[in-house]
Design goal:
By secondary structure, this protein is an alpha+beta fold. It has two domains: about 50 residues, no CATH class; about 90 residues, Clp1, DNA binding domain (Jelly Rolls, Sandwich), CATH 2.60.120.1030. It contains three helices and ten strands; from the N terminus they run H-H-H-E-E-E-E-E-E-E-E-E-E.
């Protein structure tokens, strides 16, 4: 059987090669093909193993921490008693759900009333259900004139009685 295969190889014509080099050329081509296949299989196996050990977003490799998600992405319902003040950091979103409150600012342009397309200056009455955005971390926030409920997303502190 080997002798027949060898004769068939000798009978193959490879353009530009003398008849004695045909066998060497075929073995070289087979070696290159084998190397490519083994290298490709190793690459695929390596990628699969890496994907199995580092699952992005899992408890072992979180994309972000749970505390970050809780603090920056979830709306919190906050109640303030009359006289208390909520001071917020830059990027904090505030919605007054019930009660009476006014804006607190320290010399800037106040709170951005996104719903009303206006700036609420120091002492300005906050309309219910308007989305407010705190542009800077410089003491801006909301002071409760009565007991209020706010929805807040972001970093803030509550002060007062």
């Amino acid at each position: 059987m080997r002798a027949e295969a060898a004769r068939e190889v000798d009978n193959l014509e490879v353009e530009g090669l003398p008849s004695g080099s045909r066998r060497v050329w075929l073995w070289g081509a087979a070696a290159v093909l084998t190397a490519v296949l083994i290298g490709g299989a190793g690459f695929v196996a390596g990628r699969s193993a890496m994907a199995a050990t580092t699952d992005p977003g899992s408890d072992a490799d979180p994309l972000v921490s749970k505390s970050y998600v809780d603090q920056y992405t979830q709306l919190q319902v906050i109640s303030l008693k009359s006289g208390q003040t909520l001071t917020a950091e830059a990027g904090t979103e505030i919605i007054l759900r019930s009660g009476e409150a006014h804006a607190v600012e320290t010399g800037g342009f106040g709170l951005s009333d996104v719903t009303g397309a206006a700036d609420l200056r120091n002492g300005g009455r906050i309309p219910a259900n308007h989305l407010l955005l705190v542009p800077r971390s410089d003491g801006r926030g909301v002071a409760a004139d009565s007991d209020v409920y706010l929805m807040v997303r972001g970093v803030f502190t509550v002060k007062g009685p």
